[in-house]
Amino acid sequence: MRMPNRATTCLCLYLITQASSTFLPAPLESPQYQSLPPLREQAALQDSWTASRIAHIPAILRKHGVDAWLISQREYAEDTVFWSLKRAQQFSARRRTTTLFLADPVGNVSASHTWVDNTAGVWHDLCQVLEDQDPKTIAVNVDSDIAFSGGMHAGELEKVRAGVGKRWAERLVARPMVAVEAVATMPAAQLGWYRRLQETAWALVGEAFSERVVKPGVTSTEDVEWWLREKYQELNYSTWFHPDVSIVTVNSTVGSDPNGNDPTTPQGIIKYGDMLHVDFGVTALGMNTDTQHLGYVLRPGETEEDILEGLLDGLEKGNRMQDIVRSNMKIGITGDEILKASLEQMQHEGIEGKVYCHPIGDWGHSAGTVIGMTNLQEGVPVLGDLPLLDNTYYSVELYAEHFVPERNATMLFMLEEDVYWYAETKTWEWVYGRQERFHLVRPVAGSKSFRVQGGY
């Protein structure tokens, strides 16, 4: 009997560990940095997850009423879905890479076929399979509104039509939800490692918003952003966007202007009594996280008990909004319907704020319906009309508006946590947890603070 190699053995151990610990509660009070396995073992894990995703594609095709799905691209002009279906050791498509998936293959035929060729031979071979299987409808990714369903380049579509001929070209159809569901669906085995990524994110913000990194009066928000970037690299993680660290003031806003600048707050030197905000994500093993947490800079002599009541109440209101959104995330209804129900419940409870949640996983802003945007609180065209899918991950992203008496102003409490669909209870559960207490920058021994009487 052939003995398994080390990568295979380690993969089995990782899968066993995931299976036994997938739904155990996480130790929220002491998140730890999670080391990644060697690259060879990471590749084995990722390929096993991809195999699960590919095995599910025929069921997706049947669900959406198509007989086949054709994906074709050239090197460096990849279809968006390529990145969710490739092997871990692939860094791009090669030559012309063409894949055909079949919903119900006839005879002893594989449900998927891939050709890598830079000659007309690819069309000959593809047509042979089409002749043998005779699919009546062939989905292609040519949607004009959804990125994950519109990844076939215009020139490549022309080549496909010419290559397969009139008979098969007339059977090409657009079925946007095929690509959306293929990318959005997260294999169950990924959750154990996704939770580890999320724990690492919590550990990162826990250190970033602490006296180990922040020295009041000296450290800037930009310093903390670059500390996070350096720490990612030290841990062999990456990210999908530059972290945003800010000081939350009474003038803070949320959203991007048309030029792409984020006016959340002015960046500056962090001081005692500041409320801090971070928006960041980590990337590893082909997965992405998205987290927004709040921190508070204690003055010398202060403890957690001294945080302003108004700030504590604002965080609690944000937590209530999270509960409202999760409770309204019903499988099969649209993102716009979830948004409407959530905002109506908030209004009934006297809560003001905005909801702007998005799918996450293979991409930071992944495939699936969206639940509001910062500038679209009455509904999101196209993306808000899609149905919410099960077996996906979501970032519950929002902010609560709360009047803080101690500062005589309404402030924004911006939060974001990732959730997954738990099929056994048919509920959305936190991947790692949700923030219910401020991260604290504690004063170091001997530090002094001057505060004007009555000032906060």
Describe the overall structure.
- The chain has 456 residues and is an alpha+beta fold.
- Helices cover 33% and strands 19% of the residues.
- The strands form 4 sheets. It has a 5-stranded mixed beta sheet, sandwiched between helices.
- Helix 4 (121-133) packs across helix 5.
- The protein is elongated.
- Mean pLDDT is 90; it is low at 1-27, 257-266 and 450-455.
Taking the alpha carbons of the first and last residues, their distance comes to 72 Å
Summarize the main sheet. 5 strands, mixed
The coarse silhouette is elongated
Estimate the mean pLDDT confidence.
90
What order do the helices and strands follow?
HHEHEEHEHEHHHEEEEEHHEEEEEE
Give a topology summary.
Layout: H1 6-21, H2 39-63, E1 68-74, H3 82-85, E2 96-102, E3 112-117, H4 121-133, E4 138-140, H5 154-169, E5 172-174, H6 176-184, H7 191-208, H8 221-234, E6 244-248, E7 275-280, E8 283-284, E9 287-288, E10 291-297, H9 309-328, H10 335-348, E11 352-355, E12 358-360, E13 393-404, E14 409-422, E15 427-430, E16 439-441
Parallel strand pairs: 1-4, 4-5, 10-16
Antiparallel strand pairs: 1-2, 2-3, 6-7, 7-10, 8-9, 11-13, 12-13, 13-14, 14-15
In short:
With about 450 residues, the protein is α+β, with helices and mostly antiparallel strands.
What brief labels describe this structure?
456 residues, alpha+beta, 10 helices, elongated, disordered N terminus
